[in-house]
Amino acid sequence: MRSRSLAHVLAASTLAALVPALAPTTASAAENPLGQYLSQRPAWHRCGASAPASYQCATIKVPLDYGRPDGKKVNLAISRLKTSTAAERRGVLLVNPGGPGGTGVGMPLSLASELPTSVKKRYDLVGFDPRGVGESSPVSCGLTDSEQNWERPYRAEKFAKDVKWARTFAEKCDAEEGDRLRHITTRNTARDMDVIRAALGEKKISYLGYSYGTYLGAVYTQLFPRHADRFVLDSAVDPARIWRGMIQIWAEGAEPAFTRWSKWTAQRHGTYKLGRTPQAVRKTFWGLVAKADRKPIELDGRKLTGDDIRSGSRAGFFSVREGAEAIAKLKKAADRTPARTGKPKPPSRPTQPVFGRTVPDDNGNAAFWTVVCADTRAWPHDPEQYRDDAVRAKAEYPLYGDFGSTIKPCAFWKKNGSEPATTIDNKVGALILQNEWDPQTPLASGLGLHRLMKGSRMVTVAGGQGHGIYGSKSCADKRATTYLTTGGLPAKDTTCRAPAPRREDSGTKLPLPTPPGLPGMTGRF
Question: Is-cis flag, bond preceding 100, omega within 30?
């Protein structure tokens, strides 16, 4: 390891150690190597001709490497929706939709219709595309559509081909992005958040982070505890499991969800015709998987293999009615009486801000794996370990175990992150919201974050289904709103109960990012 000067070591430490908490906007470049970033002021402009005048966008600069602030720079796209009641304004509420790889500049406008008026009166809603994502100096690996499909089952006869795919994925990223990959990390994105805070002239920020955004928020509280005001962490990532363990936990969480779904569906055999007992329902499902393995089942113009059914059904089983309707429809297709559904209606999308830059087609997946591989140095590098783990996981978690444990691009990632993963262990106040039946960040994951953030309180939605809570009219919304508007955390952890699922309420409708992968698959935090 080559020698580094004391000045370089100090520059690589956290922004909190470099910038006085009460004077973040006055440090000059001469006084502080980061002063040029902390003292900048956004040049706001309207986010497109059709956007409301109050919805503004800007681009600021952050260093690619915080250890070398005079080196290469990254463009950071930010947006804001200003409160109309300046007299009641408390500050800014920074928002993140999850990912990694989720674009956030559109979130202020998306959330404007979801958040209560009392919150919007107190905060400017501020969004941003994290470094490497969307409009913020986006990464690209030049991946084809087939290369972007990373939800792959373990099959002994195809494993060598999957190893080649993972190696090619990593090599293409290295060839396209080179040393930049080392610096696209959660830790640096948290530092970028603090530059945003300073650029906005705020002493502290409040924060609403969904999914991966909960880990990003936790890292921020670890690096900048004095700058964290009111933090709501919704559908939480367990920092102790980043990132391979968070992919593997999808398989662990799917099995109890499958058991619950089987019981619920058996009680409604008259509606779904999938079996009168939980055992019969499970037999029907696995029969469809076996049938599709012999000959793919055509559904809505797609030919589904048994592996497609296992992968695509995993998240659906967490929302029992949605899962039952999907498997009943699949059964009709397998029986050659497919349901007439027509073409699916595309989801409505909020107005996207205009920056005049082109985002690469593979940016979502490229950014996901860049962060997931660079954040931690714990990924195994021996393909045989992935093979052994996949075989064991499929035996223990038949629905998705092999998908979660088989080979991934991180096995061949050449550019380790510039720093080790951040250890989360603090007493910063925060409110964690968690559904009992969350397919992407299961309840065990939320409990993991809660244990590490000792100043946090957790609201568990018993019977809650889906990924993402606040803004979806959940029983937890009132507690989150009270915290954001008054600062009052619950005196202790609490549980509220979700209403029974209705036909029109089979999953979250929050403006969370679209996951990568094949249609119907859910593969991002």
Answer: yes
